[in-house]
Amino acid sequence: MVAQDSAIKTQPIVINMGPQHPSTHGVFRLRLVLDGETVIDVEPVFGYLHRSKEKLEEERTYLQTLPITDRMDYLSSMTNNLGCSMAIEKLANIPVPERAQYLRVIMAELTRISSHCFAQGMQLQEMGAWATPLMYFIREREKIIDLFEMVSGARLTFNYIRPGGVSQDIPPEFIPACYKFIDEMPGYIDEYEQLLVQNEILRSRTMGVGVLPRDLAINSGASGPVLRASGINWDLRKQDPYLVYDRFDFDVPVGQHGDTYDRFMVRMYEMRESVKIVRQALDQLPPGPVTANLPIVIIPPPGDAYAHIETARGTLGFYMVSDGGANPWRFHVRAPSLINLTALREMIIGHKVADTVVIFGSIDIVLGEVDR
Amino acid sequence: MYGLGIVKGMYTTLMHLVRPPFTRQYPEEPVPISQRFRGYDFAWVEERCTGCATCAKACPHGVIDIITESLGDNRYAVERFDIDIGLCMVCGLCVEACPYDALFMGIGFELSSDRRWDLVVHKEDIANRGKFSAYYRTPLKEKIADREEITEIYNPSTGQNTPHA
């Protein structure tokens, strides 16, 4: 894709973006081949944050694996706990009380809102809207984190959802506080849209940039908002309902063009849908126990189990193999960030260097999950 | 009209002039923290601890170091109870695992030290913390006799006991 009109022949040059670039969400390196300002090839290089999580978990008992899953996707720890717990429950045939299932849904959807808040704010920051929109989004994220602190006692790594339920019941002040938050949240989303969505700079930076076609989205195995923005209605909450998601009335927003703007808007609409789900779950919350009676050391029968859930980033799967011992023989994580990243090359090629950061931010990866 | 979206956004920003601030001036203004907050500020009740080391086995990173001495008659004295809070990831599994309700996690978070070895807390540091400093634990299944009820919580940031709700 060498510039045709120019009489001067230019040599492609290789630029290393990262691993310590402020826009790469952590330690991530993009090896860009540039022709002038245009990107003609790109190679993502990752692994700088590899902490050998899967091997660490194979040396721990099933209960001890949960605090480590918190550290993978640290922006949505609750859903990581949920996926891991569901795999353990499938492996050991542990029943989950109904109240615990509703609490899990509430926590998972609040996590989705907080994670999308951060994704939107960081993406705007990468487009050049430095800090101000991020502060708007973080304002609401702080409120969700306060709710989580009330429930679990931590603000980032919750370790709340456990095999067989949740670690402890919600405090009595949680329900009014959560109602207050979900009453306010649609107004805040309106404010984000008024602040940003019609902004001409944002539209010109995102519309038609980083298009991921339908077939490529399917072939690359993408999931979550990246897949849905390309026009494919695939959401595990609808297609393979887990927990009690089949009892709630909600829509799955789907994009049309698969560009960065659609990915941005899909996340915006998903926040509204999550608010709807949390409200219905709070209305239907039944009384009862929140955890199954389990020993401290869970010893499942030999076998394997795979559980997948829809997190804020896509399909998060946990695969475990048990040999009848106290710790998993094999522990594998299907991380949505890593799989979504494989479509990055086709999205970036042909765009300018400044668009690279915008497209990269629109995938919304968390490096702790990519490298594990 | 081109530019209308930017004007609308600026209007939203301008509206913040008439709103109260959302931020808090943290070191001067105290931050309310949850009763269940899991901090590094451990508290240990020597009279209740039997030295069974369930907490040490429950810890995913093995940061708790316990050495006991037999007193005969199936009773043990705890010689050493060290917690390396430099490696602790505050998951709270040790507190939940304790069958005798002897270990707690405090609400203190303003702890720091200049030396690596100061991060290892010994049993003298975590025993006798005035009242019990922490509240994060699951409710006990059976009530232990001769166990006094917790009515006060020690808050290390103020150094005072505050009544427990």
Descriptive terms for the model:
heterodimer; A: 372 residues; alpha+beta; Cytochrome-c3 Hydrogenase, chain B; three-stranded antiparallel sheet; 8 strands; globular; B: 165 residues; Alpha-Beta Plaits
What does this structure look like?
The complex is a heterodimer of chains A (372) and B (165). Chain A is α+β, with helices and mostly antiparallel strands. Chain A has one domain (61-370): Cytochrome-c3 Hydrogenase, chain B (Orthogonal Bundle), CATH 1.10.645. Helices cover 47% and strands 12% of the residues of chain A. In chain A, strand 7 (315-322) and strand 8 form a beta hairpin. The longest helix of chain A is centred in the first third of the chain and has 30 residues, at 98-127. Chain A starts with 12 loop residues before the first strand and ends with a helix. Chain B is of the alpha+beta class. Chain B has a domain at 33-132: Alpha-Beta Plaits (2-Layer Sandwich), CATH 3.30.70. Helices cover 16% and strands 21% of the residues of chain B. Chain B is built from 4 helices and 7 strands; from the N terminus they run H-E-H-E-E-H-E-E-H-E-E. In chain B, the strands form 3 sheets. In chain B, strands 2-3-5 form a 3-stranded antiparallel sheet. A two-stranded antiparallel sheet of chain B has the order 1-4. The termini of chain B are far apart. The interface between A and B is medium-sized, with 36 and 32 residues.
Q: What fraction, in percent, of the residue positions of chain B are helical?
A: 10-25%
H/E series of chain B = HEHEEHEEHEE
**Largest chain interface and its two residue counts?**
A-B, 36 and 32 residues
Within the largest sheet of chain A, what's the order of strands?
A: 1-2-3
Helix-strand string of chain A: EEEHHHHHEEHHHHHHEEEHHHH
> How many domain modules of chain A?
1
